[in-house]
Structure formats: C-alpha cells, structure tokens
Amino acid sequence: MADILDSVSSVNLGEIHQTLYQCIYKRRPFQPRLTPTSPWNFPHPIVAHAVEGPEAVKRGLPAPGDHTSHLPKVSPPQQGTSRSARANQGSDPLIKDPLPCLRPSLRILNTLVNFLNCGEGKSINPFSQDRYPHVKRGDYTSLDADHLNFFRGLLGEGRVLTKPEDCEAYNVDWIKNVRGYSRCVLKPKTTEEVSGILAFCNERRIAVCPQGGNTGLVGGSVPVFDEVVLSTALMNEIISTNDTSGVLVCQAGCILESLDSHLANHGLMMPLDLGAKGSCHIGGNVSTNAGGLRLLRYGNLQGSVLGLEAVKANGEILDCLSTLKKDNTGYHLKHLFIGSEGTLGIVTKVAIQCPPKPKAVNLAFLGERKYIILTFTSNCVDSFETVLKIVRKAKRELSEILSSCEMMDELTMDVVVSHLKLKSPLPQHPFYMIIETHGSNENHDEEKMNTFLQNIMDEKLVLNGTATSEVSKMKNIWDIRERITEALDRDGYVFKYDISLPIQNFYSLVPAMQERLGTSAKRICGYGHLGDGNLHLNIIVGEFTQDILNKIEPFVYQFTSQLKGSISAEHGIGFRKPKYMHYSKSETSIRLMKELKVLMDPRGILNPYKVLPENK
Ligand SMILES: Cc1cc2nc3c(=O)[nH]c(=O)nc-3n(C[C@H](O)[C@H](O)[C@H](O)COP(=O)(O)OP(=O)(O)OC[C@H]3O[C@@H](n4cnc5c(N)ncnc54)[C@H](O)[C@@H]3O)c2cc1C
Questions:
Q1: Is the ipTM of this complex over 0.90?
Q2: Does residue 34 have a pLDDT over 80?
Q3: Which of 52, 169, 338, 371 is the most buried (most CB within 10 A)?
C-alpha cells in the first residue's frame, strides 16, 4: 500500500501539464518524466534491461504500462523477489495491477504522447491493447531472464533481439493499424531451432507470434501484447528446383520476389504475384493462402502447394513435404496450415508447383464508361453490365492465355497519382481495367489480344485504352496497380476491407458505403481482382475514431453476407476480424475450427487473439 501511495504522489501532474504545454506550443517532443522510485519504474525485467543506452532514451517509445522506458537505466528488482515486479509481469495471481486507479490517466498520457509525437513527424501508433481495450491479455507467462538465456543458448546472442528499437519494426504491422509491445524477437535458421523454441514455449505457456515479411493486412503478423515474435527472416534457403516437374522446395522465409528471380533462370515462375512481393515470405503467403494478381490463371496456393513441413505447437516436426502431384494417402494435412495464419503450426518448408515463365506477355489498360451500380437495395442495372460484358468476353476470347483481370475506380487512381506521382496512361475515367495475357507464342497472343480489344471498342464497351507488350511500359502500368496500398497508406488512416462478392455485385459496396458515411470519410474507393470477384474497399479518414468504425462495422460485413459474399477473400481474418467470422461461416464450421485448434495447440500459444472468435 505504501508503495502505491508513493507512486501516486510521484506522478507530478503539474509537471506533466507544463511539459504538455511546452510540447503543444513550442513543438518539443514529449517525454513524460516520472520519479525513478515509483513502482512504474520497475517494469517487466526485459524492458528494464532493454532501455539501457542513450538510444532508447532518445527514441521515447514507451511500452503500454511501461511509462519509464524513456528513463535512463534503472536497475530491475531481483527477478521473482518483488511482488510489484511480478504483478507487472502479470504472473502473480494475487496482484494483477498495483495501480488500477492510475491506468486510465496513463493511457490518456500515452495517447497524448502519440498525438504530440505524430505532430513532430514521428508517427507512433497507439498500442492495440489501448485501441482495442475489449481484448484482454491471456494468462500467458511473461518472459524472464532465464527464458532469454535459453533462447540465446539455442540461437546465439545475435538472433535474439530484445532492445526496443530492434523490436519496434516487428511490433507494428505494414498499414500501422495494430501495435504490440513484444520485447523479444527470435530468428531461427532451421526447422530444429523452431522446434526447440516451440517445445520450450509450449511447456511454459509463453505465447508466440509467427512472422514472415510482416506485410499482412489484417493484423495477424504482429503481437497484440507481449508475445514472442518468431521471425522466419533467416530461414531463406532454396533447397531444390526441378526444371522438369517445375517443383521448387525452399524454406519458409524465402522472399517471394527472390524466388521468382531464382526461378527465371530455370524458365519457371512463382504461381502467385502480389504488390508485397519484395517483402512477403513464401511461408507467410502459404499461411494466409494469399491470392494476388494472377490467381485467375494459376489458381490458389491450396492447389499449387504440393507439400510442406510444419512445426506443431509442442515442437513436433510434421513432414508433409511431398513433391508429388498426386498423393491420396489419407487426409491432406498440408491444408491445416494453408490459410490458418500461424494458429495451428509454423510452416518451415514448402514444396510448390511452378508454371513455366511465359514467353509472350501482353497488357491492356482500359478506361471504362461510366456505369450505374446495381445496389443491394435497388433494381437499377445499367452499364455495370458493360464491365461484366468485358469480363465475360475476356474470359471467352482470351481464354487459356488470360492471366489477370483487375480494376480500380477513379478515386483509387487519384490517390496513386497524387501521393506517388505516378502517371496514369489514360486521361480521367470513372473506372479502369487491366487485362493481361501470358502465353507461349507472341504472334498468336498478340493477335488474340488485338481482336479482343477491337471487339470491345466496336461494341463501345470502353472509352479509351492502351495495349503494350513492352516490358518497361507494362511495368509502369503494374506499378500503378501494385502500389495502391502504399498510396492509400499515405492518404490517412485506412479502414481496409477485402471482400468476395458475386461478380454481378462486385462494386455495389462502394456506393453503398459512400452513401452511408457521406462526408465523414475523406475517401471511399474500390479496386481489386475483378476476375476473381474480389473487391478491396478502402475507407480513408484523417484519424481513427471508434465512432466511424461503428458506422462501418458490422454494416460492411452484414452487407457482404446478405449478398452471399465472403468477409475475407484473400487477406485472412487475423486480429481484426475474428468476431465477424460468423458472417461467412456457419456455427458448426466455427466450432470445428475451435476443436482443431485445441487438438493442434492445446495450450493456445500460437498466435493468440487471432482468427478464431472468443468463446462467449
Ligand atoms: C502492398 C501490398 C499488396 C498486397 N497484395 C496482396 C494480394 O494481392 N493478395 C493477397 O492475398 N495479399 C496481399 N497482401 C497481403 C500480404 O502481403 C499477404 O497476406 C502475404 O501473404 C503475407 O506474407 P508475409 O510473409 O508478409 O506474412 P506476415 O504478414 O508476416 O504474416 C501473415 C500471417 O501469417 C502468419 N505467418 C507468417 N509466416 C508464417 C509461417 N512461416 N508459419 C505460420 N504462420 C506464419 C503470421 O502469423 C500472420 O498471421 C498485400 C500486402 C501489401 C502490403
């Protein structure tokens, strides 16, 4: 009790106000100062070790509940001896939180720090536990020095990151929607090391967040609280490439683009391609069952992954690394790991069927006529038929060589042009389409593409267009499409939705959302994989507010569900969507998923708080 009173008096509110005033009016970065004797200065032991050094002080990146990480080094208490220290670790059932009355004020303080630091141009996002306060930390063991020593013994000093500045990038997702405060990132190189880590964590009930390239868009790849991050970044060995069968075997941490470059020397290519190819890992792709720009032609990973190796939560290695095209011996266990987003095991190796690299590639970029959308509530159909006609024609006339059919609306093009300074090949149009062919005979493919373009022009289905087979021009067009996510990110806070809809309703959600939100959003735009019926709806606002989120969700999911769509076409469920899963999956399916989770990971250490909805 004396400790508590001590600490309350040590938070000098007058001083905080004065410092805030200086920050607001004099634009100085804010660093709250608390007296080093307060229990807040005895954070998690790892944090206390980690704040050593001037760099940590300079950065001023506090962990939630750790309002001291800006301070010069404070000696941590003897591990396991102080009650308040154990309470801060969340391991003492008797003392959950020594200062519950101070938590709200400190949370507000953290928000202010974020706000002020953003003003200084250093965007620091709120922690997920603050932005999503309904999600509570599970009863997992907090790391202590012994745990770290084990990891260092297993991996070596250099592959165990604990400094806040080293861990920060692993705590924030690509679109900066979610942020954890892990102070331990592990970088195994081999399957055996992954196995050693998981066996150890499972026994002690330490939560683990698997991470590949951290390009996921649903908050699945970063910790929610202090989960240990297991990064596959150093598991990047290509094991074999068979020129005849086209089968590539590699470790899970290989970067998609590097694999594609490697395969080009063998006359092959990866069966998937996406805007994040320069960063995402094949293990991350498999774990999210990523779709991408050419799923229309090459199918999804459930088809092209022939086999994989995974490590179960208890450390057991599961060898399903078949390279056979046909293998119907019992259940196809690989499917447990394709798309399960790191909740059932960690993928360590992948065998994947790769198609031949096309000898002829053609690309058309089309400017569409204005059309009125068939909305969910009205019966008016006008020229959306036009777009559908183009898709239908492309599928039939280009048939076996059609490799991609993408679309974007005017506001999407605008965001790319204004933020990335990329040049649109066409003047302004309400809608744009990209149609690509992959084939083996240049003359034949070009002739097919030209005939198709002539036909849609003759039928007045398009207003304008450009076609090319020049590599640099095709790259410029793909750049526009592939960098949309990056441009949107620069436009403001983005609410992202990745929806599958029956093709006749493909765009209907965009005007419905525009009507619903009116001027409360800065921009509401849509683009996506039209050929697969996969729309990316993006709502951009100046700042995240719960109010606007409440206007969007669950409406967006109800709308999708009523049209018999899917609330996640390709990005997965991650941290942001579990409670909405029932809009796309039956109760029975969700129950079976939960049973599988218990079977595969009975202690729930793998990527907690993700994918599965909480039990009510
Ligand atoms: C610019 C941009 C464009 C994108 N375009 C597309 C697109 O067209 N189509 C598409 O589907 N997605 C797209 N994405 C989303 C993202 O790139 C994919 O989801 C990708 O597959 C994630 O791979 P990653 O290595 O970055 O995985 P991460 O983001 O690190 O992780 C994603 C999920 O997989 C888990 N995970 C990662 N590695 C493993 C492993 N080895 N074992 C078990 N679990 C693991 C993580 O815990 C997390 O839940 C895009 C993202 C960006 C930023």
A1: yes
A2: no
A3: 338
- Mean pLDDT lowest among 272-276, 381-385, 589-593: 381-385
DSSP state of 126: P
| Domain at 184-357+586-616, CATH from 3.40.50.720, 3.10.20.740, 3.40.1190.10, 3.30.465.10 | 3.30.465.10
Residue 557 has pLDDT above 80, yes or no: yes
Q: Whose CA is nearest to atom 45 of ligand 1?
A: 342
DSSP state, residue 32: -
Q: Which residues fall within 8 angstroms of residue 569, CB to CB, at 6 or more apart?
A: 291, 498, 499, 500, 529, 532, 533, 534, 535
Instruction: Find the mean pLDDT for residues 392-408.
Output: 95
- Residues 6 or more apart whose CB falls under 8 angstroms from that of 23 comprise 29, 30, 116
**299-328: b or e for each residue (b if 16 or more CB lie within 10 Å)?**
ebbeebbbbbbbbbbbbebbebbbbeeeee
Residue 418, both tokens = 């204004």
State the CATH class of domain 360-562: alpha beta
Find the residues whose C-beta lies inside 6 A of ligand 1: 174, 209-217, 220-221, 232, 252, 274-276, 280-281, 283-285, 287-288, 290-293, 341-342, 346-347, 485-486, 570-571, 574, 607, 610
d(C-alpha 51, C-alpha 55), whole Å? 8
Separation CA 285–CA 301 (nearest Å): 8
DSSP per position, 76-92: PPPTTT-HHHHHHTT--
Please tell me the distance from the alpha carbon of residue 467 to that of residue 363, in angstroms, as a whole number.
6
Q: Which residues pair with 110 in a beta bridge?
A: none
Write the pLDDT tens digit of every residue in 222-239: 999 999 999 999 999 999
Residue 270 has pLDDT above 90, yes or no: yes
3-state SS of 143-169? CCHHHHHHHHHHHCHHHEECCHHHHHH
Mean residue pLDDT across the chain: 82
**Among the listed residues 74, 103, 85, 3, the one whose alpha carbon sits nearest the alpha carbon of residue 44:** 85
Give 220 Cα–ligand 1 centroid separation in angstroms: 9
pLDDT at 351: 98
Report the separation in Å between the CA atom of 445 and the middle of ligand 1, taken as the mean of its atom positions: 33
User: Quick one: what percent of the chain has pLDDT higher than 90?
Assistant: 72
